[in-house]
Amino acid sequence: MSEKSKKPETIVVSAGRMSAEHFGTVNTPVYRTSTILHPDFESLKSEVSGGPAPRYAYGRIGTPTTESFECAVAELEGAARTVSVPSGLNAITTAILSVVASGDHILMTDSAYGPARRFCNGVLKRMGVATTYFDPLLGAGIEALFQGNTKLVFCESPGSLTFEVQDIPAIAEVAHKHGATVAMDNTWATPVYFPALARGVDLSIQAATKYIGGHSDVMIGTISVGEEYAERLETYVHDLGLFASPDDCFLALRGLRTLPVRLARHWGNGLTLARWLQERPEVSRVLHPALESDPGHKLWRRDFTGASGLFGVILKPINEAQLAAFMNSLKHFGLGYSWGGYESLIIPAHFTRTAKKFETEGPVIRIHAGLEDTGDLIADLEAGFAQMRAT
Ligand SMILES: *Cc1c(COP(=O)(O)O)cnc(C)c1O
Asked: How far away, in angstroms, is 112 Cα from ligand 1 center?
């Protein structure tokens, strides 16, 4: 079997493994280091004189642990290079900053992760970079929004909290025609279910805090790119002094080993809950692209090979006390931000839209289906709805 045809399930088992260099240990251990001792004057000198770079020069520039993690993600993404950074949000901001300069314009999806929006409206604006938000459903129609100085199109699909699926290949084609770069936050599907680079994305972003880490105990982000962007991205990350700690890379790589098997279960559990919720009288609409009735279903079927466990629910109009009664009665759904760990979570979803209004009948909640038994989860939701009705 050729390397090219390897499936994600096979890739994650051995990618980034360097056992022979680490006394045979299957996983690369944590190398905590700042200083690397060089064997002689010549190899030390080569760093300053521009000779061949030593494999490891200094802790901030990379360690065996970081290298294993980055190589593993790169192989899964089909990327020339992956860099790891301190958080998913930093992966977003670093990806943007690595391509824009003062006076540039970017197009940002209206369904972007909230803090990414805040970054555009604050830091980017102050630096003289203008942002136009676009309707995530525009597809090739995004062409009308291009200006002479549009350098970047930023996508997220399905988008945060509202889960609209974007036509990434169509958007990428238009962007490239206009000489713009395409970045995408692909945290929801991960490279296992959406091969972002193969679909036309130039900078593929993961909040590895979520499914790659998978255990709610690490903060880390990755940016993966093809040859064209590799040097620029790496230089930018080094110049800013960004890096992810070896401890966090170790945990993220450990999570990556079981990513496909966990995702399959999150997908199944999420869809089971979504189908059950869809039939409930308390629910107005379930926002989940793997549901046949979802407006994004056709695009999802065309471009994705699976769904994660994260989806939205628009409830029928209720008051705050009823929503609180529902949330507070839940035993198996933690009330907490983030997602992608093994546990089920629920939050009220509040979002800002400026390109196009997103109509909701009642309050919106976001559910992350964990790995628990779906019978237990459904019983929990059912009891919650009973509390809601009794309030
Ligand atoms: C959580 C999240 C991020 C940010 O990741 P952090 O590691 O928390 O900074 C980015 N994008 C999406 C879609 C997310 O859900």
From this structure: 10
